[in-house]
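Structure ticket #2291
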Amino acid sequence: MAQSIEYDDKNLQRLFAELEPKRRMQALKGGFRREANKVRKTAINNLRSSISSNKDLEKGVRAIVFKRAAGFRVTVGTKKAGKNGKGEAGFHTNRQGLKKPVLIWAEDGTAERETKPKQGTRRRASREREAHRTGKMRRYGFMAQTLNGVRDTVTQDIRDMVTENVTKIAEKYGCK
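Resolution: structure written out below.
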């Protein structure tokens, strides 16, 4: 004999209908933002286990809640510094002091690369610089690992977070 679970959301729908439109959006976005931050923390933990990371790299894992649509995206990227020189995220400083977007390369890896031979000079052939390999970066796949880890639970968690947020905002603004 199969058991069925019934979910009665009439109370939630009533609270949601009583809220003004701005508060409805606030409740939905708050739930999505909280779940996005949970997924972001999972991605950062996967990053830490695959690469020896630091705070600068971890800031490159970003959670974005969509403005017009319902949903969110957790992505790797970089963010340039503002006019005051602050706000930079997702860069690694190499041995030459240059900032490089390592997270973008670490997710998918890079192809094998090599230099081009020095051509077009009137030097003797023995002094021309030979082409040599400069290497590749292996694929770490920490975002794919995060996707596989949270795929099954994220929908239920979003539902719970949004429900919790709607009731909290309804209490705050006097809806019964």
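Closing remark: Helices lie at 10-18, 21-50, 55-58, 102-108, 142-150, 154-172.
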